[in-house]
Amino acid sequence: MEKGVVKRAVLAGYRRCGWTRTRVHILRHSMASRVLRTGVPMKDIADVLRHRSLDTSAIYAKVDLTKLSAVALPWPGSAS
Predict the structure, then answer these.
(1) CB within 8 A of 36, min separation 6: which ones?
(2) DSSP letter string over 13-28?
(3) Number of domains composing the chain
(4) What is the spatial distance between Cα 17 and Cα 51, in angstroms, rounded to a whole number?
(5) Is residue 15, in this structure, part of any structural domain at all?
(6) CA 12 to each of CA 2, 5, 9, 20, 26: distance values in angstroms, whole numbers, following the listed order
(7) What DSSP designation does 50 have?
(8) Rg (Cα) of the chain, in Å, rounded?
(9) Which DSSP state fits 4?
(10) Residue 49, SS3 per DSSP
(11) What are the tens digits of pLDDT across the range 18-46?
(12) pLDDT tens column, 47-58
């Protein structure tokens, strides 16, 4: 395989998506956030990202606070 072919393919994909960032971390962030939204456990996401700590993986997997608030229970003792 010619050197740089994968990198060029990824960069071309970024351009098609309209992404201005070209670092690999955007792929890691996107993957982690998307699979978290589908219900994949954080431990599995950490394994795919090869993280030892779930806290590190949580940086990549952004939580959808709107959806989370829809299922969250009221704080004990609160008025609601």
Answers:
(1) 42, 45, 61, 62, 63
(2) HHHHHT----STHHHH
(3) 1
(4) 27
(5) no
(6) 16, 11, 5, 11, 14
(7) T
(8) 17
(9) T
(10) helix
(11) 877 767 777 788 888 888 889 899 899 99
(12) 998 999 888 888
At 36, which amino acid appears?
Answer: L
pTM: 0.56
Query: Domain residues for 44?
Result: 21-63
Is 12 domain-assigned?
A: no
The CB density around residue 42, as the number of other CB atoms within 10 Å, is 17
| 8 assigned to some structural domain | no
Contacts of 59 (CB under 8 A, 6+ apart): none
Is 33 inside a domain boundary? yes
**Token pair for residue 78?**
């609160």
What residues contact 56, with CB distance under 8 A and at least 6 apart? 46, 49
